Amino acid sequence: MFQKVLIANRGEIALRVLRACKELGIATVAVYSTADRSAMHVRMADESVCIGPNAAKDSYLNVPSILAACEITGADAVHPGYGFLSENARFARILTEHKITFIGPSSHHIEIMGDKITAKKTAVELGIPVVPGSDGEVTTPAEAQAVAKTIGYPVIVKATAGGGGRGMKVARNDEEMAIAISTARTEAKAAFGNDSVYIEKYLQKPRHIEIQVMGDGQGNAVHLGTRDCSLQRRHQKVWEEASAPTVPAEQREKIGEICAVAMRKLKYSGAGTIEFLYENGEFYFIEMNTRLQVEHPVTERITGIDIVYEQIRVASGEKLSLKQKDVTFTGHAIEVRINAEDPQTFAPSPGKINFYHPAGGVGVRVDSAVYGGYTIPPYYDSLIGKLIVYGRTREECLMRLRRAIDEFVVDGIKTTLPLFQRLIKEPDILAGNYDIHWLEKYLAKK
Ligand code: ADP
């Protein structure tokens, strides 16, 4: 097992990893930018190192600085959290070359899944169902129109190097396609430095369903069930549930098993998420995230498994402690993302928190790194906390979520809590009757 883990992240996820390390008896090193000098992760770690100025590119993305922090403190492993360097194959490789363990999959697996065309090809080889589309990259309108003829409009043009919901264009006919191809290529080049695009059938009313997987790199892998993350704004998730409501249990089991088998074949190591669109009872692979996800706590709640603990264990070379038959699913969990944003306009709302009172009580977990008197810096992601609620049934979970949202007080800045106060009363939400477009349509109406 590791002696000392450096956590190359900030905010709630840095705290989440710190907690797992402490429970495993591992010493912790926090890294921080000058803007984060008084952040909670710095206060809670055994040691801390300043790695640069405010801008993430100069601090949390600054590889030489993070390597130096490992050197100074003698850390033998790095946990990247999510975002920042968590899916950076080069970073994983450099650490390995310096005999420091990257707590995550191999750089090879990060690379395969980071390129969407290669990821899709790999998925096909592994027997995972994918969205019908082009066989790899498409460069000219004529080529694109020929693909659209076989799969039918509407189609979506996606950037091979895309991420964060960017670099996608929908086309409904040949004329739109001609424009979509050239604009998508130009935009992809500007955003990702790579103009490669491909085409998929555009699904009209899908749900976003994902499977949590966990492997040990030695051919053992399990799935930890489904999550429904269909409630999205600008392709960003705002509300997540486990298990996925509306997907029948036997279908959840079947897709989970397909993913577990695929991860065994791949000899995948660490935590990962295989994302699907789900429409008319069919699953279609869209991508795999080779890291811990923001929404992992809902899975932890219904399985009783500490995903970060397992990540650390397998990274240290131990075998997966779980067998598929040991993984059981009990009750229902929902997570809502509390962002420092105006709940109407979604404009960022950084600043000082005067008073902070998180929800508590039975079945409530709050993962956050803020406190009363803390000033949220304007430089990073607006996520300030996650409220995770459990119930024996979805109905109980929803009632508990309603009372937990009412209890939660973050005074001094604007947050998305009022949005959830509204959503929790919506009949479609209560019935679990929503697809990936529901939230955008709802927000446009109000
Ligand atoms: P990113 O890596 O940018 O998050 P994804 O491939 O995961 O890109 O897609 C993000 C979101 O875009 C999905 O959750 C879904 O809302 C939408 N999307 C992607 N592919 C399709 C498709 N073929 N049809 C309809 N919507 C899609």
Automatic annotation (TrEMBL):
This is Biotin carboxylase. GO terms for biological process: fatty acid biosynthetic process. Keywords: ATP-binding, Biotin, Fatty acid biosynthesis, Fatty acid metabolism, Ligase, Lipid biosynthesis, Lipid metabolism, Magnesium, Metal-binding, Nucleotide-binding. One of its GO terms (molecular function) is biotin carboxylase activity. Pathway: Lipid metabolism; malonyl-CoA biosynthesis; malonyl-CoA from acetyl-CoA: step 1/1. NCBIfam families: accC (TIGR00514), PRK08591.1 (NF006367). SMART domains: Biotin_carb_C.
